[in-house]
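Now read these lines:
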Amino acid sequence: MKRVAGVYVRWVDAVNYRIGRVMMYGIFVMMAILLWSSISKTFFLPTLWTLEMAQFAMVAYYITGGPYAMQLGANVRMDLFYHDWSVRKKAWFDAFTVLLLLFYLGVLLYGALGSTAYSLGYWGQEPLAYFAGLLVGTEEVGRLERSSTAWRPYIWPIKAVMIFGFFLMLLQAVSELIKDIATLREVDLRVV
């Protein structure tokens, strides 16, 4: 079981590390979009797509970069008492809070699935069954949801990014829980 846990932690950490390193450059994408927005408003005709595209880029940036931040411990934490605790006490506290995070991420993921199914034209109550039906061909895509702005982009791509990001965050939270349990049991997962 230690071997499986070690492989899982290494695999999830490696995937989220690579994705996080790529997404770090998303800030430059947002800056370029907003710079073009400023230039086009000043010297040319204003473009319709820039502000909404910057919002979409920001969502992709922080949703898919979140697991990397969690892995590095760069997430916001109330360190009033935490920094004085022993490693073992921190592991107990982190394991407890990760359990709460897992529940929260599960709710977010289910909501994102439902929202994405809606944006693909599904108005039913079972988004998981809808996506399973899409895979086997018993369901089909309906009328695609579009933004209500003048640009009117399709919404499903950014919602799919949210599903992907929440899923990665869920995997990373499980990885952090395994690391906390390994710390409590005094097991080194790097050796396994």
In short: The chain is about 75% helix and 0% strand. The longest helix spans residues 87-119.
